[in-house]
Amino acid sequence: MKSTTFARLALFLPYLILIESVVYFIFSDISESDSLLQSFNIAWNFLAIFWFPPYTILVILLLARSKGKSFAEIKRLFLSAPYWLMITAPVTYTVVLIVGSIADREFFGSAWRFLLLAGAVSIPASLILGYAFVGISLLLYKLLSRIGVISNDDPQQISVGGPDLQI
Questions:
Q1: Please, how many CA atoms are within 13 Å of residue 118, restricted to the half-sphere of its CB?
Q2: Chain-centroid distance, C-alpha 152
Q3: Distance between CA 147 and CA 155 in Å, rounded?
Q4: N or C, fewer C-beta in 10 Å, the chain?
Q5: Containing H/E element for 34?
């Protein structure tokens, strides 16, 4: 797999964890055990209500912007993604509040405090979770590169002095 392909696929890691979480609850009995995995899955499913819409918007934008770029350019772009999510999330909640208020006048009265709190919490959460996933993705990249799953055949890299030395 090319390094640029891995970088784009790494954007889907939060979705894979969400799928695992949903499958966990489909096949397990919640009332039987109280494990760390169960607690994590409960929290992740609850948080998905908030991160799913803004993160999906961000993923679409990042995929579009990464097209035709080298791995170094994509890496630089993706390292700034938590900051973009920090902006995207409150904007998404604001749009939901405005559209909801236009569609139903009662919506504003009941939802504005909740969406304001969600927007405020999403700012530090975007940075903390965002950089956690960036770190996990970079660790996976290093691991998969070392075992040969990811090849660094980036067309932007120029081979000088043999296959081991690249600039």
A1: 24
A2: 23
A3: 21
A4: C
A5: none
Residue that is written with structure tokens 């919640």 in the block: 30
Instruction: Give pTM, 2 decimals.
Output: 0.78
Could you report how far apart the first and last alpha carbons of the chain are, in Å? 20
β-strand partners of 159: 166
- Tokens of residue 96, six digits: 């939901």
Secondary structure class of 159 (helix, strand, coil): strand
Q: 16 to each of 11, 19, 63, how far by Cα in Å?
A: 10, 5, 17
Q: How do residues 50-73 score in pLDDT, each as one tens digit?
A: 889 999 999 999 999 999 999 999
As a whole number of angstroms, the distance between CA 55 and CA 48 comes to: 10
Token duo for residue 138:
């970079």
pLDDT the model gives residue 113 = 73
Q: How far is CA 39 from CA 42, 122, 165, in A?
A: 5, 20, 47
pLDDT tens for 69-111 read 999 999 999 999 999 999 998 888 888 777 877 877 776 676 7
Contact in structure between 45 and 21 (CB atoms under 8 Å):
yes
Report d(CA 114, CA 50) in Å as an integer: 11
